[in-house]
Input
Amino acid sequence: MTKALLRPYQVAEWLGMSISWVYGNKHRIGFVQIGSAVRFERSAVERYAESCKRGPQPEERETWESQSDTGKKGTGGWSRKRTTVNDINDRLRGIERGSGRRESTQRSARQS
Output
């Protein structure tokens, strides 16, 4: 019994991506190279697609973590507060009113 190997264009159609994307990500997916031909096992493509699944988490609907929140957690009592949607909205309202960081940096630039 022989396993049928998929060609790159078949993987591209299956994943809804371009053929060049499939070639560029073949190491992430897992591939078989026979001579110069690149082929994919169906099970490897399924595993890759499964590993890419993301879903909303109930606690993530209201809390978003900023990429700048990289403080170490649980070391010496020091941890940074996570940025929430409300924090972002407050900052945006401050900028609209003219009391944001942008305003203060413009003032300091004028004084120089």
About this structure: The beta strands are 5-6, 32-34, 37-41. The two ends are 78 Å apart (CA to CA).
